[in-house]
Design brief:
Layout (H helix, E strand, L loop, with lengths): L1 H10 L4 H9 L9 H14 L4 E11 L4 E3 L2 E4 L4 E4 L6 E5 L9 E7 L16 E6 L3 E6 L5 E6 L8 E8 L3 E6 L6 H5 L6 E9 L4 E9 H4 L3 E7 L2 E6 L3 E6 H8 L9 E4 L2 E4 L19 E6 L5 E4 L4 E4 L9 E6 L5 E8 L9 E4 L7 E4 L3 E10 L2 E14 L10 E3 L5 E3 L13 E8 L4 E10 L2 E10 L5 E6 L9 E7 L2 E8 L3 E11 L7
Antiparallel strand pairs: 1-36, 2-3, 3-4, 4-5, 6-7, 7-8, 8-9, 10-11, 11-12, 12-13, 14-15, 15-16, 16-19, 17-18, 20-21, 21-22, 22-23, 24-25, 25-26, 26-27, 28-29, 30-31, 31-32, 32-33, 34-35, 35-36
Length: 523
């Protein structure tokens, strides 16, 4: 606080908002992060120059899935790691092929938190947390693949942990089991299965066990289909489209029977063992004995439910099939529909449009259709400060200038021909948006648009100003793009990476690096 007052006096600024604005623009060279912000600003300018190109520097193919995490490409079920940061991708490590029993089911990248003292020097370097098919949770060095820590998860209660996710990114991690299902013979014998899922909760760096709990039909109801935990909220989804939210932290505090530490010897329900060691695993030490207080519930088609914006709003689709593609934006406070809060692009397409809160934390909303991207914002209704309305911030339109879709045409001889069908909005022969993403460090909105003529599809990655939507750069992708395949495109500062999944589990990876094209080079 004293340093802030000194800075105010030194520059003659007496308004905190003005000071923060000047700091964000790098007026004070001694502020942490100024050099980094300046460098990113320079990178953005260089990248958007006309002379700057993105060159395909590396291509590989694999019979197993390919994953990308912060400058690292993982292949062969995470046994092979390749850096994409170098001028040309190079091998970081290659481990021997693992047995089927050691197959990795899921993984999360773990990065060191800033400003914290950690118990081990290895904690200050990036690591990968992986979940194996045999219920081992491993922390691997991102630089060598060496096992730094290992925890056995499944005791007598659960045998099938399959999913990793963040409750609080880089702080609290959730390990979720597959849904428990009884064998057909057991069901025919009339045996009832009440436990649907198990959730194990960990604090990371240092890795510590918080607790394990079960999601039980007797507590949450018979029609539960899935659960998730995000930002301290337990989200329970039901077969009829209902979504219910509970305070996850309060559940842990209220129903924790006994806390345990990893490596601690325990005697629990007649079992003696060590927490996190084979064969005992983790105790189920959070027993929910009564339905927790309900925070919020909503009914939405296919359980689609999102929260965001300021003040808080949520997005749902009315729970009827005829409303698919219609989105309602409502106030979380009182469920009031915002003015202009029904968003419907009226698309006639095979693939539905999609909508989500902008990941830049601006509170805006991105609505993506086949040929139109709308960035929407929440604002107060004039003369009604307690009511919000949805307004258009900007739009991005696909290039369909050469597209002619007349239902009636006239031949050279003068004969009138009427078409019996109308092209879909996402017809492959028309430019169609397939991917929209946000690069937070460069503050750019990226879009992938595809046009397919015959068997040959062409895609280009465009960079738009995140504030106004202005097109700043367009990068053609050299490889053919088949719209029937699964695709992922990552834009990470000066890198573009395209992962493609073809039929019969064939995967391809294409890496593009930024090059400043001083000579006349079409590459």
């Amino acid at each position: 606080a004293g340093g802030g007052r000194t800075a105010l006096r030194a520059c003659g600024v007496h308004n905190v908002c003005r000071l923060l604005s000047r700091r964000a623009h790098g007026f004070y060279a001694r502020d942490a992060g100024v050099a980094h912000r300046k460098n990113l600003g320079l990178l953005r300018k260089i990248m958007c120059q006309e002379s700057t190109k993105f060159k395909n520097v590396w291509t590989t193919h694999s019979a197993s899935p390919i994953a990308y995490e912060r400058g690292r490409i993982y292949m062969d079920n995470y046994q092979c790691c390749i850096t994409s940061i170098a001028q040309q991708p190079r091998l970081i490590y290659q481990k021997s092929k693992c047995a089927k029993s050691e197959k990795i089911e899921d993984a999360l990248l773990l990065e060191c938190p800033l400003g914290e003292m950690l118990p081990s020097p290895s904690d200050y370097k990036a690591s990968l947390i992986v979940l194996t098919v045999q219920n081992w949770l491993l922390r691997l060095s991102a630089d060598s693949g060496e096992v730094l820590e290992k925890v056995y998860l499944a005791g007598s209660c659960c045998k099938f942990f399959r999913y990793l996710s963040w409750d609080t990114p880089q702080e609290v991690m959730i390990v979720k089991s597959a849904q428990n299902k009884l064998p057909a013979a057991a069901r025919q014998a009339g045996i009832q299965q009440t436990v649907l899922f198990y959730l194990a909760v960990f604090q990371v760096l240092p890795l510590s066990f918080i607790g394990m709990l079960e999601i039980n039909k007797k507590i949450f109801g018979n029609s539960v289909t899935d659960v998730a935990v995000s930002n301290g909220i337990l989200i329970v989804m039901y077969s009829m489209g209902l979504v219910r939210l509970y305070n996850f932290k309060a559940i842990l505090e209220q129903f924790m029977e006994q806390p345990f530490d990893l490596g601690q010897e325990f005697n629990w329900n007649g079992q003696v063992g060590v927490v996190g060691k084979y064969p005992f695993g983790l105790p189920c030490n959070v027993k929910i004995t009564d339905t927790p207080p309900l925070l919020f519930e909503a009914s939405s088609l296919e359980n689609a439910f999102q929260i965001g914006g300021y003040p808080w709003h949520y997005i749902i689709t009315p729970n009827k099939k005829k409303h698919k593609g219609v989105f309602h934006i409502c106030s979380l406070k009182d469920n009031t529909l915002a003015k202009n809060g029904i968003q419907d692009m009226k698309c006639c397409s095979l693939e539905p449009d999609w909508i989500y809160f902008h990941p830049d934390m601006s509170g805006r909303i991105i609505h993506v259709g086949p040929n139109l991207i709308k960035v929407l914002k929440l604002k107060e209704v004039k003369n009604h400060a307690d009511q919000m309305e949805i307004a258009e911030d900007f739009t991005i339109v696909a290039n369909r200038e050469n597209c002619v879709n007349n239902s009636v045409t006239v031949t050279a001889s003068g004969r009138v021909v009427k078409k019996r069908f109308t092209l879909l909005d996402d017809d492959p022969e028309q430019e169609t948006f397939k991917i929209v993403d946000y690069e937070d460090e460069l503050d750019l909105l990226s879009t992938v648009a595809v046009t397919q003529i015959g068997a040959d599809g062409r895609a280009h990655l465009d960079f738009h100003c995140n504030e106004h939507g202005i097109l700043l750069k367009s990068i053609p992708l050299k490889e053919s793009w088949d719209v029937t395949y699964s695709h992922e495109v990552y834009f990470d500062k000066d890198l573009v990476l395209h992962i493609e999944q073809k039929p019969n589990r064939r995967f391809s990876c294409y890496v593009y690096q930024m090059v400043c094209d001083t000579a006349k080079d079409d590459d």
